[in-house]
Amino acid sequence: MSIRLIIDIAKTLLMARLGQTLVAAIGVTFGITMFISLVSFMTGLNELLDGLILNRTPHIRLYNEIEPSEVQPIEYTEKHKDAIHYIHSIKPKNTGREIYNSLAIIDALKKDKNISGIAPKVTTQVFYQSGIIDINGTIFGIDVAAEQQLFFFNDYMIEGDPRDLENIENSIVLGKGVAEKMLVDIGDRIQVTSTEGKVMSLKVVGYFQLGVAEVDDVQSYTSLETAQKIMGKPKSYITDIQIKLLDMEKAAGLARQYKSMFGTDAIDIKTANTQFETGSSIRNIITYSVSITLLIVAGFGIYNILNMMIYEKMDSIAIMKATGFSGSDVKKIFLSLSMIIGVSGGLAGLICGFIGSVIIDQIPFETSSLPTVKTFPVNYNPVYYLIGILFSLSTTYISGFFPARKASKVDPVVIIRGK
Amino acid sequence: MKHLLETKNINKYFHDPTTVHVLTDVSITIDKGEFVSIIGRSGSGKSTLLYILSTMDTDFEGELYLDGESMRNRSNEELARVRNEKIGFVFQFHYLLPEFTVLKNVMLPGLKLKRYSDKEVEEIAMNKLRELGIEKLAHRNAAMISGGEKQRVAIARALINDPLIIMCDEPTGNLDKRNSEIVFEIFQRLVYERGQSILVVTHDADFASRTDRIIEMEDGKIIGDRELKER
Predict the structure, then answer these.
(1) What is the ipTM of this complex?
(2) B109 neighbourhood in chain A, CB within 8 Å
(3) In which region does residue A208 sit, left (phi positive, over 0), alpha (psi from -120 to 50) or beta (all else)?
(4) Exposed, middle or buried: residue A190 (CB in 10 Å: 0-12, 13-18, 19+)?
(5) Which candidate among A44, A186, A356, B120 keeps its CA 20 to 30 Å from the CA of B95?
């Protein structure tokens, strides 16, 4: 039997019961709307929260830990080779925090196919001088372009342009807390003293805020060159190499590999933030279980309404069978009935879900940790819309299947003689 | 000669709640162009026989031939097609699809058969309605017309695929005298003008006496089979 005739009959049956049909379709629409808005919002929030960590943390960080030599001099002598060594008062080696041969390492990393970006960094302790008071602080010398690409540095700038760090010589971007303590504005000059006692005058070109007071109160950014100048070190002096990978999951393995390959220390993101993944996956589980519950409830609604409809239509089913419609025709008619509800309800749900997400996207959401975020975060990933429509189709198919099968098994003789 | 409809020793039992032998060795033949009525008291098994003949009830013993072909061991799909193509039904309680228009009700078996295009089926359906004098009802909703009109629509629907035989279960059982008369006249016209075969199950002796042949049943057995008119 032609699909067109089946759909035509199904449509007529639906139109005759417009109220019921609408209730069933609205059930689906509601489920899908909630699914879309909820998932978009929850994943948006998830991404934001994950981003707080992910965007600021390199997948792998290469650095030099200050630690004692693993091999002590006594072990080099043949004479005491088989003896047990007791060594007292071991002190860390004076290697400093510099990564040796950093330029060669960066060149090697640039050829690695697993890596999406590299940002070198110089970390140094300083004192900010404000009048007669010295404020303890840390300066990160960064490659502005790389930092921007990897860690979205711009998102944390509340005033000023990070590119000025490279365009203006001897410039600095202060943490908001530091700036407030020192009562300086953009354009003012401040004095910093390095741990070696060298004093430098730097021009303030902006403020940033991470929303973590202990960071904002001590930290500042300068360009790599400025940081190297403060420390009186050459251009190759780098203390950290921050690496972002194409696939974050490989971080732990690659960290071990780089550690042995380059002779530096290496730490991967999961080791650095163990709590991060747990929170993120639990939030995902909550989102999906709530959405699926909504859709299952909608599915039961359709099942009930179709079941009811079939009892109402017993006579019609009997007469269709008597006049030559087979059981499978009847089944197809009732299945398409259900699918029409699923498709129309689902599509309406996608539209309402989109509208819902747009509305959520307008709700003000101020957070000090993300100065660029003004409203609730929403993730408009089309994948959720695909999942939504697929789910609405599969729920309506399943909830239509059993009533349809029941309809196909109606014995016309019983109905017609039963009168 | 090939009979239009033939049964050989049909036996039928109901098993619920206890086993009852409802039809015993029923063997009948019906030929093309016959206007036959089956009469009997209620419980005589006449309706049961009709539903076996109509292929809707397949739970019986014996042989059933329609147009020379055995109807045993056929799939439901095949039987549905046989009903669609070769049998027209008229029931006591009209049984139109209340959601559809009169015209659509008549058309549906034709659309299902797909022997003609949708346009042609519509034309044929209109012709049938015109023939039965109810073409003005074509676009009315099937639930909104009177009982006598519904029965005429049901006859038009039974005719849509030019069936070999029309089977009726108490076609006038629910109609008043005037409408019964109209229905009978339509049947008569179909038989004499077009050679349509019609099988009617009824307990209306008056109606039966005006058909060509009466098969009388009692307690699941055929107790009489008489020709009333010479053809």
Answers:
(1) 0.85
(2) 323-324
(3) beta
(4) buried
(5) B120
